[in-house]
Design brief:
By secondary structure, the chain is mostly beta strands. The protein has a domain of 137 residues: Immunoglobulin-like, CATH 2.60.40. It has two helices and eleven strands. 16% of the residues are buried.
């Protein structure tokens, strides 16, 4: 799992760590008795206090100043399929990949930038035309105004070793920082898009929703004799 940060502006973002203090238990009132019994009771109570774990004050949960940006996988770039000769048959398939899913969360207060944390799941494969057992895939993360222009885009390398197998999976942890013009600027004004670095032909293949059948590229079996 790797961690990278997409910075949209040359800003220094300072993270302040919240202090958590241990609260000692409140001592119970002691009786007014005297003598050896009172001393033993005090010793037992002190020993019990030392053996109990400290009670930690819970951290305050502060809501964001607004909604999080939308985080999506771009459909046209959600899959990576190498096709030798451009023919969509299984015998021509090289390396493949699919962005299986993404989970995300964000945090921002006052006029702070928006920090978006993401976990991206990739499933990768080797077809009959794949050359070797290793492949470095390339993907990107872009920040846009919602349904408008791209504000920033950055590319990342994803090295994968199949270790003799036909499939592999990988998870990438990424962080994106989005500056805001003012405290009133909501995270709902932005989108974070994720996709493979694909060729126009790959994008068209994805756009059509094409899928391979198990028997694609193989001759159909002859029907049994009657």
């Amino acid at each position: 799992m790797r961690l990278a940060t997409v910075a949209l502006a040359a800003l220094a973002v300072l993270a302040s760590a919240g202090a958590v203090s241990a609260q000692s238990p409140t001592q119970r009132d002691r009786g007014q008795g005297q003598g050896q019994g009172q001393g033993q009771g005090q010793e037992q109570e002190q020993e019990g206090e030392r053996s109990r774990p400290p009670r930690i004050a819970p951290l305050r949960s502060v809501a964001n100043a607004g909604p999080c940006p939308f985080v999506k996988i771009l459909y046209d770039a959600a899959r990576y399929v190498e096709l030798e000769g451009g023919r969509a048959v299984s015998a021509n398939v090289g390396f493949t990949g699919e962005i299986e899913g993404v989970t995300a969360g964000c945090a921002y207060q006052s006029d702070e930038p928006i920090t978006v944390q993401m976990n991206i799941l990739f499933n990768l494969g080797r077809g009959p035309r794949a050359d070797g057992g290793q492949r470095t895939y390339r993907y990107w993360i872009a920040v846009t105004e919602r349904n408008e222009a791209v504000l920033a885009k950055e590319y990342f390398d994803l090295p994968v070793s199949f270790e003799g197998g036909a499939t592999a999976s990988a998870t990438e942890e990424q962080s994106v920082i989005i500056p805001r013009a003012a405290a009133e600027t909501s995270g709902g004004n932005f989108e974070v898009l994720i996709g493979f670095d694909v060729t126009p032909e790959m994008a068209e293949f994805n756009r059509t929703g094409s899928r391979f059948r198990v028997t694609a590229g193989q001759a159909a079996a002859s029907p049994p004799a009657q």
